[in-house]
Amino acid sequence: MAGASVKVAVRVRPFNSRETGRNAKCVIQMQGNTTCISNPKQPKDGAKNFTFDYSYWSHTTADDPSFACQRQVYKDIGEEMLLHAFEGYNVCIFAYGQTGAGKSYTMMGKQEPGQEGIIPQLCEDLFQRTGENTDPDLTYSVEVSYMEIYCERVRDLLNPKSQGTLRVREHPILGPYVEDLSKLAVTGFCDIRDLMDAGNKARTVAATNMNETSSRSHAVFTIVFTQKRRDQMTSLDTEKVSKISLVDLAGSERADSSGAKGMRLKEGANINKSLTTLGKVISALAEMQSNKKRKSDFIPYRDSVLTWLLKENLGGNSRTAMIAALSPADINYEETLSTLRYADRAKQIRCNAVINEDPNAKLIRELKSEVERLRNLLFSQGAEPTSTGEAPADPDHLIEDGEDGEEADSADSAEPISKEEAAEMLLETEKIIAELNETWEEKLRKTESIRLERESLLAEMGVSIKEDGGTLGVFSPKGTPHLVNLNEDPLMSECLLYYIKEGLTRVGQQDVDIKLSGHFIKEIHCVFVSELNDQGEGETPTCLSVCLSVCLLSGVRSPSGGQRCL
Ligand code: ADP
Ligand code: MG
Prior knowledge:
Elements: E1 4-5, E2 7-12, H1 17-21, E3 28-31, E4 34-37, E5 48-51, E6 54-57, H2 70-87, E7 91-96, H3 103-107, H4 118-131, E8 138-150, E9 153-156, E10 168-171, E11 175-178, E12 184-186, H5 189-209, E13 218-231, E14 236-248, H6 263-290, H7 305-309, H8 311-315, E15 319-326, H9 333-346, E16 350-351, H10 359-380, H11 397-400, H12 419-437, H13 440-460, E17 482-484, E18 497-499, E19 503-508, E20 514-515, E21 524-530, E22 542-543, H14 550-555, E23 556-557, E24 564-565
Parallel strand pairs: 2-6, 2-15, 7-14, 7-15, 19-20, 22-24
Antiparallel strand pairs: 1-16, 3-4, 4-5, 8-9, 8-12, 8-13, 10-11, 13-14, 17-18, 17-23, 19-21, 21-22
Bound molecules: adenosine-5'-diphosphate and magnesium ion (MG).
Magnesium ion binds near residues 104 and 215.
């Protein structure tokens, strides 16, 4: 049972304008699937070669015969993973690399023809293929969640109501999961594209509010793909379920080089906790392979939220691919070399994927017997606490302290559990059963109500999500004055629109209509007044404030052109 190794690709992007402006030298060369990096300080003998499943040369343009476009990356990696998902395997693609190296471009890309990344292409392909099905006994369902891990906390990017952080829990049967993370039912590519878009915006808005850039968080887009086949003779259903995890990791650069200081340093260390743990897990898994030890020594999955949630994808039941994004520029030589070494280690990992046939029926059976067990336990505990053979580990462990991971993988630390704990576990298990028993119609209803909430919340915040029709370029909603991209993240690829409503629109840090944060943003930064004209359109908004900063002004676009500042 050798298992399949993790597919590893590297991809080098074009120079950005700053690099071109500084006359940067390209330190990367590619030949077939080999990548060569040369040390700009020792151009003669500093070159190192690495071989991967794919080496993508995206440094030039499409007229270069060796140029790798978005489509090719999808065809090689995305499509292969999608086909595995149709076979019933869990699959995972994660993008690694320093900030600005091209992770988001490779995973999400831009909403321009030919520029879409793996995620939108995979979703479109998925619905294309399911749409071609003519077998009446075969039905498909697709559910989506999108979360962000920031400072070891999980946030739901699709449900605005879950403002706080979600709990990462471990269920004795289900394993690690995020409690209350919304799993939205989708019926076609448009649904999923809208969710992706809403999630990307939520990510940017959150980053703006926290005065951070999204490059410091990990984004995990998950598709649960279920294929149900009805057997005509017996009228029995069999199911195959595949979880497709698409991960855009935080920038891999060290906290100190990204300018994290003081308070930020702590956050940086926390973000790096997931990333450094990922590194440790990959090293440990790679070592396990090279030593050909049968049993895994201890793999520190539990030490971070990211590795805990991706446990199966890293060393277990999954077909996994990693794409390492590389900067071509000489100034990034050290980081790029370290990314190449990281990718080189990941090559050695092997996963033992199995087809997830009928997992739900089996799961519900197991969960029911767990409920039974807990009920009995609670019943007998009326008098005195009893110990149980398989108390789950405390889920808070992995967030609060990573030290005591030694006993982690032994699921049966036979500690007695209290009545309260048993009652909580019972609730948790019943909640999971209820979720599994939900009908498709119920799921669709829930999805719709969350969508309405999401839209009204974003509209309240002054952010348009609907009117721009899902395009990422700057789109001016007709008849409504608005501000564009008040986000200080220079790498932001999403477009945010902030409406100036009729009447007063207050901009500032607290209790305002448009919330901004940053060094120079005052508590109440400025107030816009907008009056309707005869056609019912918003007239040129007037800014009442005298302290309007230049960055704000430059963002103002109004349909009637120009703005006045009193
Ligand atoms: P990361 O997510 O790793 O921080 P991005 O994907 O945001 O980096 O890429 C940084 C910038 O470089 C973006 O403007 C992006 O459009 C551009 N870019 C990255 N990779 C490519 C590529 N292969 N081709 C063209 N542009 C790219
Ligand atoms: Mg990014």
